[in-house]
Amino acid sequence: MSTHDDAILDDAERWRSRDLAVLWHPCTQMREHQTIEGRNVLPLLPVARGDGAWLVGQDGRRYLDAVSSWWVNLHGHAEPRIAEAVARQARTLEQVILAGCSHPPAVELAERLLAIAPREAGRAPLAKVFYADNGSAGIEVALKMAFHWFRNRGDEPRRTKFVALHNGYHGETIGALSVGDIPLYRRIYAPLLMDAIFAPSPDAYLARDGQSAEGCANDAADALAHLLDEHAGEVCALVLEPLVQCAGGMRMHHPAYLRRVRELCDVHGIFLVADEIAVGFGRTGTMFACEQAGVQPDLLCLSKGLTGGFLPLAAVLATQAIYDGFLDDSRERAFLHSHSYTGNPLACAAALASLDIFEADDVLARNRGTAARMRALAEPIAKLPHVADVRQTGMILAFELARDGDRRTPFDPALRIGLRAYRAALERGVLLRPLGDVLYWMPPYCVDDAQLALLAETTAAAIREASACA
Ligand SMILES: *Cc1c(COP(=O)(O)O)cnc(C)c1O
């Protein structure tokens, strides 16, 4: 190796130690980044810049971002059109208080989101947009709105409960965590959380004895119907992730479930909150996942891909009926919720530029081709002995690893198979951060054929290497 390469590697190492001296990373046991006897469990990857689907490390190497940087990136890193829109907006108006003031990007983005939001024949469309600044905050907004709407109607104090799904995820703030059901994130904080009512997940992976995905969906909907009867009059809203429970391991369900849920919410007069924070903006093949069931929610939560992955922003879309429930002479009946950066102009400008790219590049059509190539590339990987399930919804493809591929017996968690696969992939130039023992492909939409081939080859090698220890 030349002295030039040595210098680059030293530089990466320097960044690693400067980082660990001062930063506390999200969702991380920091102990795993510590180097003990020349080794660490989890190598920290210092990134210098992004370029399309690539991340360029401080070590000068390229890494394929197979997880779209926690599912936020849509059109590639440092996308020039979004970068330019943000720069232009920064020179014009960087931020203004949105209480009492207005600005063009916030208005224009609201108009465009409402124009593309899911529609259902015979139902009044989503009509108003409330901004927040991250996904969890968006969920808090939706929960508070649903609760407060019933209060304003005079239904106090009975409707205080939310229904959510087993294995669902809605964020990390206390309210959002209360309607989430991932033990690793939730258990420790349980004493702080509000009581939610959890209904069975329609997850098709849970199917037994040749049951179809639709059968699973119907069973889960039947169970939900019972639960709602039991709690009649106590519930203000039901919150779910349509089509894919992402953080719960990319577990997927049949759209029939969403149609049944919509009917049940109507029968019980409760709001349906669709959390499309991860699945919105083309991830599942359609612009929004609800479209595949022909269902329109009462509240739609968007974030993550909303700005193309450039800036934090969330939008909660509500019906006119919900909005009208807050109109009054009393301030207390208003929705007195705010975040300092509500509707930040830079973030709105990025979101508008991202929507322009959907149109200019016909992204959804291009993704259909990409999704088909992903499916074909996954086929041989499905045959590996420890791959128990391969599932796909649009631009999300997941591999469930298990001890006996066919019998779906999980690996001993202590083996940390997913983490081993992560390391093996990173060494081969792919960032493939797993969820437990689920590896998944959720690449930026600009991913090309050569990158997909690298992704497939690396995934197969990582699965072989990781499961060799079992
Ligand atoms: C990521 C996520 C959230 C939380 O969003 P943050 O911006 O991380 O707070 C909520 N719901 C779903 C479905 C998510 O995937």
UniProtKB/TrEMBL annotation:
GO terms for biological process: biotin biosynthetic process. The record marks 27 as: Participates in the substrate recognition with KAPA and in a stacking interaction with the adenine ring of SAM. Catalyzes the transfer of the alpha-amino group from S-adenosyl-L-methionine (SAM) to 7-keto-8-aminopelargonic acid (KAPA) to form 7,8-diaminopelargonic acid (DAPA). It is the only aminotransferase known to utilize SAM as an amino donor. GO terms for cellular component: cytoplasm. Gene3D superfamilies: Aspartate Aminotransferase, domain 1 (3.90.1150.10), Type I PLP-dependent aspartate aminotransferase-like (Major domain) (3.40.640.10). This is Adenosylmethionine-8-amino-7-oxononanoate aminotransferase. SUPFAM superfamilies: PLP-dependent transferases (SSF53383). Pyridoxal 5'-phosphate binds at residues 135-136, 275, 339-340. Pfam families: Aminotran_3 (PF00202). The keyword Cytoplasm applies.
